[in-house]
Design goal:
Layout lengths: L8 H4 L18 E3 L2 E8 L14 H10 L4 E4 L4 E4 L2 E6 L5 E6 L13 H14 L16 E5 L2 E5 L7 H4 L8 H5 L22 E7 L3 E6 L13 E6 L3 H10 L4 E3 L3 H8 L4 E4 L6 E6 L9 H10 L3 H6 L4 E3 L22 H10 L7 E8 L3 H14 L4 E8 L1 H8 L8 E6 L7 H4 L19 H11 L4 H18 L2 E7 L3 E4 L2 E2 L18 E2 L1
Parallel strand pairs: 2-11, 2-12, 16-17, 16-18
Antiparallel strand pairs: 1-2, 3-4, 5-6, 6-8, 7-8, 9-10, 10-11, 12-20, 13-20, 14-18, 14-19, 15-19, 21-22
């Protein structure tokens, strides 16, 4: 039985009449179905694939962690790693072999057991495809060195010791090999099928996909960790405009929203019955240059733009809910330093660098690509336009959907001169940020700068395979300085989260390792 009348076509094009109902502002917005409460979340970013081996971003990871489990999981702040599918693990004295002991009784959504072979195969699949999270481990872990010892035990033998190994495992989700391979097409390892299907063991299973409109999850009653009265399901509605999100929250058409514009977030934060989360995130915003592009391959031009940029305007965009970066590393990353000479607006320096460039008098146009409908990124483009006028450089603003932005940046030939990127490290270990500036990251959304500096590459590789932190820490100090010197981007700011939900939504948990708009549905419930 539903609690709402039909909501406006502008927000729910493509939905069936039975799907939603409007509640008055004082009424609870969640749905009831067969006595269970269904939470409705309004998000601005689509979920182009469900495949854990292929992609991850805030929207994809929000859905993946609802449907899948990993060996370990991040919780709390400061972030800590807790056992999940692995109830415990051991590390050999030489730091090469990790042995994981799996929980008993975990099942995939189709009833198959989650066993060591499923773990082994899932890692092998991701490593073989070389996409998504593969970059985290593929430099020192080969598929043939992952062994299913027995049904409950799996071992990983690394090529060389890697201190942050376990810090990356929460993002390697375990898939049901039987289910995925049964849907394989032309040797694709199930990639096409997993775009809009899932094969997980998580608390929720996929019920419905209307790409570009909504994604629906239903509670998996056989979940091995139990629910204790948690939600019966989740409806993830795609609402691209911040103003429409705010209206949906206030009218009782959504229970939880993320990504509101700063002004609209401040409005809902004052509303009765609304709870907000504004904790800081590991996420950093930067305007990344294509360092191999026709114009922006010129380091002097990049530095001219960086010194012309009005950084203080970034803070104003976020109504003070942001802090400027003092390093390529965000504040919670181990070994982060305040890099001397971090660029700030200085037109004298900007003109000095422009004079050294191939275009000393300007007279060029730079393309700036940003997320369509994301007002703050549009405002950043206006800052660029205003900042570069004095250098006689014009800016062409190009709004694209996130999927099209990623596609543009995936090839050096099509990656734009400048592209607005929010990047969240997947670990507090410095390798999680440094590797973004390694050639292995080229073409990923965090690697659209296409940076390729042999000296920096050597520094990153040496640091990531040094196990003694006393030796690693000074290496990362030099890496931060080197990255800034190469100017692969305008290093911007770290913003606070802007998550808002109605006060009947309980159990929201925060961990800075999660992306700024990422939500863990499992602990949520409605009171």
């Amino acid at each position: 039985m539903h609690m709402r009348k039909l909501i406006g076509v502008a927000l729910v094009a493509g939905l069936t009449a039975a799907s939603f109902a409007i509640a008055s502002p004082s009424a609870q917005a969640f749905e009831r179905r067969d006595g269970q409460k269904i939470l409705v979340t309004a998000q601005r970013q689509a979920v182009p694939t469900m495949d854990p081996s292929v992609k991850y971003d805030a929207s994809i990871r929000t859905m993946q962690q609802a449907m899948y489990d990993a060996l370990l999981k991040y919780v709390d702040t400061p972030p800590r790693i807790v056992p999940w599918l692995a109830e415990s693990y051991d590390v050999s004295d030489d730091g090469l072999t990790y042995t994981f002991h799996l929980v008993k009784g975990a099942k995939f959504h189709n009833g198959d057991p989650v066993d060591a072979e499923a773990v082994r195969w899932s890692f092998e699949r991701t490593l073989k495809l070389g996409k998504g999270p593969a970059w985290m481990l593929n430099a020192f872990l080969k598929a043939e060195n992952i062994k299913a010892v027995d049904a409950q035990t799996v071992t990983f033998t690394l090529d060389r010791p890697f201190a942050p190994f376990t810090s990356f495992l929460p993002w390697w989700y375990i898939m049901n090999p039987k289910q995925v391979l049964a849907n394989e097409v032309d040797g694709d390892l199930g990639q096409k099928w997993l775009i809009e299907n899932e094969a997980g063991s998580g608390p929720y299973r996929l019920k419905r996909v209307e790409q570009g409109t909504l994604y629906e999850l239903e509670r998996f009653d056989g979940y091995w960790r139990g629910f204790e009265g948690k939600l019966g399901g989740i409806i993830y509605k795609l609402i691209r405009e911040s103003s429409a999100q705010r209206a949906a929250l206030m009218r009782g058409e959504a229970d939880l929203v993320t990504g509101l514009s700063p002004d609209e977030f401040d409005q809902v934060a004052k509303a009765k019955g609304v709870v907000t989360s504004t904790q800081p995130a590991l996420t950093a915003f930067g305007i990344k240059f294509n360092t191999q592009g026709k114009l922006t391959s010129d380091i002097n031009l990049r530095k001219a733009v960086a010194y012309a940029f009005d950084y203080d305007a970034l803070i104003k965009i976020y109504n003070g809910r942001a802090v400027l970066q003092s390093s390529p590393f965000t504040d919670a990353i181990l070994g982060k330093i305040d890099v001397p000479g971090m660029p700030r607006k200085d037109m004298a320096k900007a003109k000095e660098f422009l004079a050294k460039s191939k275009h000393p008098n300007g007279g060029i146009e730079l393309e700036y690509v940003y997320v369509q409908g994301l007002e703050e990124e549009r405002l950043m483009g206006l800052i660029l336009i205003d900042s570069l006028k004095e250098l006689n450089i014009t800016v062409k603003m190009v709004p694209l959907t996130w999927a099209n932005m990623v596609a543009r940046g995936s090839k050096v030939e099509t990656s734009p001169d400048m592209i607005a990127i929010f990047a969240t490290p997947v670990s507090i270990d410095p390798d999680a940020v440094a590797i973004q500036y390694h050639p292995s990251s080229q073409g990923a959304y965090y690697g659209v700068h296409w940076l390729d500096d042999p000296e920096l590459t050597k520094m990153i590789e040496e640091a990531r395979f040094t196990t003694d932190w006393a030796k690693r820490e000074p290496m990362y100090a030099e890496i931060q300085k080197k990255i800034v010197d190469l100017q692969p981007e305008i290093f911007g700011m770290m913003r606070e989260r802007r998550i808002a939900y109605r006060d009947w939504v309980k159990g929201y948990e925060y961990s800075p390792v999660r992306m700024t708009e990422e939500v863990d549905f499992y602990p949520l419930y409605i009171e």
